[in-house]
Write a structure and sequence with these properties.
81% helix
Length: 191
């Protein structure tokens, strides 16, 4: 995302941004690989799916940024994406499972949480942030997501956090601090 944003939209590639990017990539890798094979039972298939997910999310980020640059609002972009996604998913549904989920009160809160928080609020906030700080900076800041996921898995599901994952998390948080420091400096300063 950072390289594409620099090439396509001429977003500045500052030393701070390069340092933050390197810290974020290193930290994300340590968080992902630090779980070891005991927690990644899917082996290469799980790793492949994780990489494809990253590529898809990068494409989403770049395409939504293109929409923002053309004047569309974040909520509009997310609505269009959700409508297109729904249309593409319809043929692949197990409608019996959908009916069970919608008619089982115990599933309503988790479905609302995933629908409203993860699927609506998160991308609208991301696009709104991207609109204000650019695709490259937003992309670097988004690397905090796997760190938060690892922390939540540890807190909620009592998954084990390894030292490597903790170091990775600290690298990502350092990247966020570097970006925050770089973007908070007044434009007139050159240190």
């Amino acid at each position: 995302v950072v390289l594409f944003a620099w090439l396509r939209w001429h977003e500045p590639l500052t030393p701070f941004k390069i340092i933050a990017l390197l810290l974020a990539v290193l930290g994300s890798a340590l968080v992902a690989l630090g779980a070891g094979t005991s927690q990644t039972s899917g082996g290469m298939w799980a790793i492949t799916l994780g990489l494809l997910s990253g590529v898809a999310y990068a494409a989403y980020s770049l395409l939504s940024n293109e929409g923002l640059r053309r004047g569309y609002q974040p909520i509009t972009i997310v609505m269009i994406v959700m409508l297109m996604t729904a249309v593409w998913l319809v043929p692949f549904q197990d409608w019996n499972a959908v009916q069970r989920a919608l008619t089982t009160p115990a599933t309503w809160m988790p479905l609302l949480g995933v629908g409203w928080v993860s699927s609506l609020l998160a991308p609208v906030c991301y696009a709104a942030g991207q609109q204000r700080i650019g695709a490259s900076t937003a992309g670097i800041l988004a690397t905090v997501e796997p760190v938060l996921a690892a922390i939540l898995a540890w807190l909620i599901f009592t998954e084990r956090l390894t030292v490597m994952q903790m170091i990775g998390g600290m690298c990502v948080l350092a990247a966020v601090l570097v970006i925050a420091q770089a973007t908070s400096k007044p434009k007139g300063h050159s240190h």
